[in-house]
Design brief:
Number of domains: 3
Oligomer: single chain
Distance between the termini: 52 Å
Order of helices and strands: EHEHEHEHEHEHEHEHHHEEEHHHHH
Shape: globular
Number of helices: 15
Helix content: 40-55%
Number of strands: 11
CATH topology of the largest domain: Rossmann fold
CATH architecture of the largest domain: 3-Layer(aba) Sandwich
Structural class: alpha/beta
Largest sheet: 7 strands, parallel
CATH class of the largest domain: Alpha Beta
Bound molecules: NADPH dihydro-nicotinamide-adenine-dinucleotide phosphate, magnesium ion
Length: 395
């Protein structure tokens, strides 16, 4: 029996995780679930999975959460705030932690799980984008096991040799990691119509059903950029070791190319329950509730190289990856601010990349060597991005 904490239980990954867990009650017990604003859903989950703790990240909602819990007859103890998130991620009773809080807010709870030596099922890519070196170092020190849940990284993990040594491409005969992405909803849209892209259009992904923020990031391909950085840290790769390949059907979830010409790909229907089940059960396999891939129904299987004019955010992320931790932290922060303003209708789709670029250009590079410095740079970049948006768009 594995005891699991699900950080971000009310989100898209969180709900999919609980769906997989519900299929195997004999294997997994839920210790704690966390949410931020969806209190009723969180308490419904508490009723169904009977965790010991329910954590509400937003402290101002604590009383509401307690009232709803009482009304619904939830037996779990209700906690709130940042420290409680870290506590349920690192509690001695917990074996595995699903890190599925969205954005920079996931950094400290995920790190708490890493430092406590847990099996960390890593969906929150922003944690690695912000703190890659410190994060990997902390995992090495504590003996934490990192299992990638992002579908591409989970695919790469499955395609690497079992005895792969972190960063040692040569000994394993690896030529390249091929990071695939669908290209999002605007892959073939005329570039001169990008200014007219609406929030609804950008919020509709052709293949995947995901949370709001990552869906917009997929449309700009910032998501692939963040994944590029994530892959470098997870597998000890350099920026030259990874190629991004557009594969619109999202059947291949990524590949590893070997020096003898072999390419190993991981395939399946685009359903996050596959990597979640893989992470939960690793090294075993369990039913994820995902229908088997029907090759006869897959009519096209196509590939292309991404064009940076169409996806400027992808280039910004690859450049930041080459520059280092300070740049990737700032880019992530600026992007979270820009996406929020886009979703509020304050800026246009094309402005997201402009805000990100302007934020990076407005700040001199510094070295970051601690989590505190990373959190500081994250905050400074948010302030700068907001200033830029206020100055340019009067909002
Ligand atoms: P969602 O927006 O669907 O869910 C986010 C979760 O985080 C919710 O539980 C939400 O609570 C909680 N949350 C939001 N803000 C805060 C905060 N400030 N503090 C604590 N908790 C907070 O996101 P996704 O599930 O789509 O994504 C989660 C992570 O997984 C992201 O990092 C994303 O990049 C990554 N990922 C997602 C994939 C997907 O298919 N969705 C695929 C690969 C990676 P509430 O809803 O109650 O407000
Ligand atoms: Mg992904």
């Amino acid at each position: 029996m594995q005891t699991v904490t699900v950080l971000g239980a009310t989100g898209s990954i969180g709900c999919n995780t609980l769906d997989v867990i519900s299929r195997h009650p004999e294997k997994y017990r839920v210790f704690a679930i966390t949410g931020n604003s969806q209190l009723t859903l969180l308490m419904e989950q508490a009723l169904k999975f009977a965790p010991r703790y329910v954590v509400v990240a937003d402290e101002s909602l604590y009383q509401d959460a307690c009232d709803i819990a009482k009304q619904m007859g939830v037996a779990a103890e209700v906690l709130c705030g940042q420290q409680a998130l870290e506590d349920v991620a690192s509690a001695p009773e917990v074996d595995s932690v699903m890190a599925a809080i969205v954005g920079a807010a996931g950094l400290l709870p995920t790190l708490a799980a890493v430092k406590a030596g847990k099996r960390v099922l890593l969906a929150n890519k922003e944690a690695l984008v912000m703190s890659g070196a410190l994060f990997i170092e902390a995992a090495n020190q504590s003996g934490a096991t990192l299992l990638p849940i992002d579908s591409e990284h989970n695919a790469i993990f499955q395609c690497l040799p079992h005895d792969y040594q972190y960063g040692d491409f040569a000994s394993s005969g690896i030529h390249k990691i091929l990071l695939t992405g669908s290209g999002g909803p605007f892959r073939s849209r005329a570039l001169d119509t990008f200014k007219a892209i609406t929030i609804d259009e950008a919020s509709t992904h052709p293949n995947w059903s995901m949370g709001r923020k990552i869906t917009i990031d997929s449309a700009t391909m910032m998501n692939k950029g963040l994944e590029f950085i994530e892959a470098c840290w997870l597998f000890g790769a350099g920026a030259d070791d990874i190629d991004v390949v557009i594969h619109p059907q999202s059947i291949i979830h990524s590949m590893v190319q070997y020096v003898d010409g072999s390419v190993i790909a991981q395939m399946g229907n685009p359903d996050m329950r596959t990597p979640i089940a893989h992470g939960l059960a690793y090294p075993e396999r369990i039913d994820a509730g995902v229908s088997p891939l029907d090759f006869a129904a897959v009519s096209d299987f196509t590939f292309q190289t991404p064009c940076f004019e169409r996806y400027p955010n992808l280039k910004l992320a690859i450049d930041a990856c080459r520059e280092g931790q300070c740049a990737t932290t700032r880019l992530n922060a600026a992007n979270e601010v820009a996406v929020e303003h886009f979703l509020l209708g304050n800026i246009q789709f094309c402005d997201i990349a402009d805000v990100n670029d302007a934020t990076l250009n407005a700040m001199a590079s510094v070295s970051v060597n601690s989590i505190q410095q990373i959190v500081e740079q994250d905050a400074l970049a948010r302030t700068k991005a907001n200033e830029i948006i206020r100055g340019k768009f009067q909002c």
